[in-house]
Amino acid sequence: YIKCTRCLAEITFKTDPENTDYTMEHGATRNFQAEKLLEEEEKRMQKEREEEELNNPMKVLENRTKDSKLEMEVLENLQELKELNQRQANVDFEAMLKQYKELEEEQRRKEQE
């Protein structure tokens, strides 16, 4: 039991250890429930997939193929990101700035001459 700091109305929560969450009992509503809804959707999809695989051996093979393709795509994307990071890591900004300053000084000398 708590009281609202603005209107002093009583708000009650009830613990939900099964879902590691709280349920609203009285006096309030949830503002943000997207994460919980997403988790429930993922569980439902996983359950449906397992039921399909139990009844259809071809579906098992199709799902394995899809999973392996997805894994390959993820690995390719990861490799691309690693390559991009290596390219940026090889850029020496200090050396570039030093070279730029030297070119500026050389241009000033030429102008003065």
TrEMBL record:
InterPro entries, per the entry: Saf4/Yju2
GO BP annotations listed: mRNA splicing, via spliceosome
Entry superkingdom: Eukaryota
Disordered as annotated region, ranges: 41-65
A Gene Ontology cellular-component term: U2-type catalytic step 1 spliceosome
Pfam families recorded: Saf4_Yju2
Alphabetized PANTHER family for the sequence: SPLICING FACTOR YJU2
Name of this protein: YJU2 factor
Gene name for this UniProt entry: Yju2
